[in-house]
Amino acid sequence: MTTPPPGLRERKKQATREALREAALRLAVERGPDQVRVEDIAEAAGVSPRTYNNYFASREQAIVSAVTADREARIAAAVAAGPADVRLADAVTDAVVEQYTDTGEHEHRALLLITTRPALRDAFLDSTAGIEPPLAAVLAERLADAEPHTARVLAAGVAAAVRIALEGWLQPAGNLGGGGLVVPTGALPDQLRATLAPLAPAFDAAERRPAG
Amino acid sequence: MTTPPPGLRERKKQATREALREAALRLAVERGPDQVRVEDIAEAAGVSPRTYNNYFASREQAIVSAVTADREARIAAAVAAGPADVRLADAVTDAVVEQYTDTGEHEHRALLLITTRPALRDAFLDSTAGIEPPLAAVLAERLADAEPHTARVLAAGVAAAVRIALEGWLQPAGNLGGGGLVVPTGALPDQLRATLAPLAPAFDAAERRPAG
DNA sequence: CAGGAAAACTGCGTGCGCGCAAGATTGCGC
DNA sequence: GCGCAATCTTGCGCGCACGCAGTTTTCCTG
Question: Which of B173, B53, B68, B73 shows the shortest CA–CA distance to B124?
Fold first, then answer.
């Protein structure tokens, strides 16, 4: 059930998706994100503009997707691969931190681009929502005995926490409304651990008390 | 700081928003949601189509907004109004359940409309994201000593939980992927309590251990 | 009460998201 | 091998989102 031979059909589909990703990022870097039209991306990838948004809903999604790749799936896989005797909260936190601690030069350059344009920034933050479905599936296995929705709620919580961490990380030193003093915006791994920490007790409880 | 006299400008703005809300809902009910164009809504509200999307990003948002009103603000207000000696988790849960347990005949009719059309259903579910900001502000007061992001993460978790509850509630008896048996889709208050329950330990921990 | 700045509304033009129906391509069973 | 069913791709067209520049309205200050 895990990997029935992919099939040529699906492979071509992924190839097209990859071509669009690559074309979108390349053109965005070359001429600036605002100077790239969907028509250009489609042409560079060798498909029609109409086909383009069978794969991506917006222009920004394609560019961000090139950076994001399928980080969501990798997070879920990392959690699934972890041994069953460690705290679920730790497994999830480590998986998330690891997958967001990129070392790629290629990625770093693109991230600089993303932080510049608000539209790309938003699309980047929205991409965190994609974490929920695969993570929920993995959590459902670990928490098989728990209430049905628990896995989804926890996965959604993680996605939200990641989003908040990224928001904080992308903000240079913006002032927040209210009298709160602003934290000096540490490194991304620290931000991620900080936002995921409040959810740990929920994971522990779900793990410990299967069926509430 | 709470209520500096609203000012005529802001009041007219809210009046226009309300007119658009009302017009959108009325037309949607009268002739069916798909037979309503932005131009029609704008005309009924006495503004130009261009002005329309200074208030709402999409056609569906306006219709949903008429049902949602400002439920987010009421939830936050209910939490803030609650006594300080009850568990924060309970206060939040009760506030959410109460605000989603509508009794309005007007609302009920509109909800029937929303459940029908997928686009409206999606917009309705998306509206839950609006819970986060006001709720986070209220939680930040209660958890003043905690780590800065904790309130936001918890608020986002609540928003996600509500969304999941609504998703489950809107599904008649759809079959889920995997071998899970489907819960008979109870009443909305039960669904909300079920999805909020897993977050309770996180609230307790945040309340108990202020600064981690 | 008058002047000026700020902000909201409007018209116009362009590009995008997406439904629809027809054509092309793949995969499967006989 | 061969045809059939499923699905992906494409052209077409409509409605919407949004930037831009100009006009009108509102608000504040002297």
Answer: B68
CATH superfamily placement of domain B70-212:
Tetracycline Repressor, domain 2 (1.10.357.10)
**CATH superfamily placement of domain A1-68:** Tetracycline Repressor, domain 2 (1.10.357.10)
Q: Is A105 helix (H, G, I), strand (E, B) or coil?
A: helix
Test mutation, A139, A183, A199, chain B, max B CBs within 10 A: A199
| Cα-based distances in Å from A1 to A11, B61, B90, B131 | 18, 40, 41, 39
Using the CA of A5, give the nucleotide whose C1' is nearest: C27
Least confident of A151-165, B131-145, B150-164: B131-145
Dist. CA A186–CA A144, nearest whole Å: 36
User: CA-CA distance, B41 to B22, in Å (whole number)?
Assistant: 9
- Chain B environment of A153 (Cβ under 8 Å): 157, 160-161, 164, 195-196, 198-199
* Facing residue for A164 by CB, picked from B156, B168, B180: B156
Q: Give which of B18, B24, B66 is closest to B42, Cα–Cα.
A: B24
| Nearest nucleotide (C1') to alpha carbon of A9 | C26
Q: Band of the pLDDT at B172, cuts 50, 70, 90?
A: low
Taking a C-beta distance cutoff of 8 angstroms, is the pair B62, B56 a contact?
A: yes
B3: confidence class by pLDDT, cuts 50, 70, 90 = very low
Q: How confident is the model at residue B110 (pLDDT cuts 50, 70, 90)?
A: confident
pLDDT in tens, A116-132: 888 888 889 989 999 99
Residue extents of the structural domains in chain B: 1-68, 70-212
Which residue among A153, A168, A205 sits closest to B195, beta carbon to beta carbon?
A153
Give the position of tokens 């920034």.
A121
- The reply to whether A70-212 shares the fold of A1-68 is yes
Q: Determine whether the interchain pair A153/B206 forms a contact, defined as Cβ–Cβ distance below 8 Å.
A: no
Query: At CB < 8 A and 24+ separation, what contacts does A92-95 make?
Result: A92/A135, A92/A139, A92/A158, A92/A196, A92/A203, A93/A192, A93/A193, A93/A196, A93/A197, A93/A200
